[in-house]
Amino acid sequence: MELFAVPDLPEIREGEDLAAAIRDRVDLRPDDVVCVASTVVSKAEGRTFDLDDFPPSERARGIASRLEAISGEEKDPRFAQAVLEESDELLLEAPFLLTATRFGHVGVNAGIDRSNVPAGDLLLLPEDPTESAERIREGLPVDRVIVTDTCGRPFRHGQRGVAVGWAGMHASRDWRGETDRDGRELGVTVENVVDELAAAANLLAGEGDGGTPVVVVRDFEWGAHGGSDEHFRAVEGDFVRQALQGWEFDG
Ligand code: GDP
Ligand code: MN
Ligand code: MN
After folding, report:
1. What is the pLDDT of residues 190-237, one digit of tens each?
2. Distances (CA, A) of 207 to 89, 143, 147, 156
3. Are 190 and 213 in contact (CB under 8 A)?
4. How confident is the model at residue 203, as a pLDDT?
5. pTM over cut 0.85
6. 8 CB less than 6 Å from ligand 1?
7. Which domains can be identified in the chain, with CATH numbers?
8. Is the peptide bond before 95 cis (omega within 30 degrees of 0)?
9. Is 15:95 a contact under the CB 8 Å cutoff?
10. Residue 42: how many CB atoms within 10 A of its CB?
């Protein structure tokens, strides 16, 4: 397979027809997978806000002052308020804000970005990135679209691209029931393809001023595998997340 970035995309503003912007700049094939950075999806959807849009609650003030004491850096309670409003559940309040968004994605600061946002202070993730992926897909001559974000992981240093929404494809390739080279049946392997493609696309998109938020994956073949659409784990059945519920930062 081959990946390439869509060239010459402009600064994306609220109301921009992203699909049209992509269509105008690249000859797509029906089996291409189009990966779009959530940053530009959010900008097009008008998810840019000012800090003043989030008058801080008592709780947000408390969180911000605790984070300020821990880090020794100034923390804006309005930012904490924005994170609270974007979140369904707080997994950690300290030493950083780790939350689950309403659509199920767990990330630091609810995925709110403060880089590549010229129009305001804050860029929130799309409200429902899978719905966004569907909408972009409708405007493109392709079957498959993935909305990505850059995100950290527990247990490992560094960030990488992950899928926050997807359309026209299963999230995962299900290897269960297939055999390895010794003829042993695979019992648990469900390969999260949308995350893998998002990570590959993110390699090309970059994190800085590259101006390349859209990456086309060409000639990726799913193969003869089943599919699964499970992506975000629910709390029930997520034992690591459950373990966090009983943990308290004491620094
Ligand atoms: P995120 O991973 O979705 O949070 O997005 P990033 O902020 O890491 O940006 C990913 C890529 O998109 C980088 O190459 C940025 O330079 C680029 N980018 C961000 N906003 C825009 C925009 O409005 N227009 C263009 N052309 N590129 C953008
Ligand atoms: Mn981001
Ligand atoms: Mn990024």
Report:
1. 999 999 999 999 999 999 999 999 999 999 999 999 999 999 999 999
2. 27, 26, 15, 18
3. no
4. 98
5. yes
6. no
7. 1-45+126-251 (3.30.1330.100), 48-124 (3.90.1660.10)
8. yes
9. no
10. 27
pLDDT value for 116: 80
- Nearest-CA residue for atom 24 of ligand 1: 11
The pLDDT confidence band at residue 105, using thresholds 50, 70 and 90, is very high
Question: Is the shortest distance between the CB of 16 and ligand 1 below 6 Å?
Answer: no
- Is pLDDT at 115 greater than 90 in this prediction? no
DSSP string, 192-241: EHHHHHHHHHHHHH-SSS----EEEEES----S-EEE---SPPSTT-HHH
* Type of residue at 184: R
Neighbours of ion ligand 2 (CB under 5 A): 113, 149
Contact 12, 21 (CB under 8 A): yes
Across the beta sheet with 106-108, the strand order is: 87-92, 98-101, 106-108
pLDDT reading at 187 higher than 90: yes
Q: Which positions ≥6 away from 10 have C-beta within 8 Å?
A: 21
Tokens representing 26? 């690249």
